């Protein structure tokens, strides 16, 4: 299998780490949707990262859908089996992915849109949504921290990757002092072999 996309994307990286944790062999192709757009488009005309190219050439997109397939392929899941535990994990993952999406929006607004076309109220709204998602995560992690060790689940994995993503892209907006539990969780996760094997830089 081939995983297409840059590991500085939280969406690509959570798939790569999941594949390492599930012991699924794959080739990572570090192709950008921006700087190498034509090369990416030649693989997937939708130019969507991550793209997983399966052994038979079938392409899958969207990190959560790719992970669902990978878990079925591996015959085991990084999600808890119990309904209540699964709901708690899904809540964390949902907040984390929302934070990732808002981080991407902030970067696009500031770096890709011409200054004369930027709209301050919209930027403020995105910032508020990002902070709200991270505040929800901080509270949830303080209340019931997800497992962060060799048995890390998809909730802890995604939360950790999300925090590192914000620190790579919007460190001036999201300060570690405001989210100490998230910063500490991510720091622990980054020491795990599966995270080290898929560095964001």
Uncertain regions spanning at least 5 consecutive residues: none
Largest beta sheet: what is the strand line-up?
2-1-3-4
**What overall form do the CA principal axes indicate?**
globular
Report mean pLDDT, rounded to a whole number: 96
What's the number of domains? 2
Task: Please explain how this structure is put together.
57% of the residues lie in helices and 6% in strands. With 201 residues, the protein is mainly alpha-helical. It has two domains: 2-74, Glutaredoxin, CATH 3.40.30; 83-192, Up-down Bundle (Glutathione S-transferase Yfyf (Class Pi), Chain A, domain 2), CATH 1.20.1050. Strand 1, helix 1 and strand 2 (27-29) form a beta-alpha-beta unit. It is globular, with a radius of gyration of 17 Å.
Provide a quick synopsis of the model.
With 201 residues, the chain is mainly α. It contains 8 helices and 4 strands, in the order E-H-E-H-E-E-H-H-H-H-H-H.
């Amino acid at each position: 299998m081939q995983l297409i996309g840059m590991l500085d994307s939280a969406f690509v990286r959570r798939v790569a780490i999941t594949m390492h944790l599930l012991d699924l062999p794959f080739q990572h192709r570090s192709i950008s949707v921006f700087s190498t757009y034509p090369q990416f488009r030649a693989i997937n005309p939708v130019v969507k990262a991550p793209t997983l190219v399966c052994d038979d050439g079938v392409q899958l997109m969207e990190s959560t859908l790719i992970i669902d397939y990978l878990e079925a392929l591996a015959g085991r899941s990084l999600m808890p089996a119990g309904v209540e535990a699964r709901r708690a994990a899904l809540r964390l993952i949902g907040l984390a992915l929302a934070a990732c999406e808002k981080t991407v929006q902030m970067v696009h607004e500031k770096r890709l849109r011409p200054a004369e076309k930027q709209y301050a109220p919209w930027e403020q709204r995105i910032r508020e949504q990002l902070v709200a998602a991270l505040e929800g995560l901080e509270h949830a992690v303080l209340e019931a921290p997800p497992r962060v060790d060799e048995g890390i689940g998809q909730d802890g994995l995604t939360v950790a990757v999300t925090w590192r993503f914000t620190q790579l892209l919007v460190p001036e907006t999201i300060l570690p002092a405001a989210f100490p539990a998230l910063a500490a969780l991510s720091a622990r996760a980054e020491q795990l072999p599966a995270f080290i094997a898929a560095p964001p830089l």
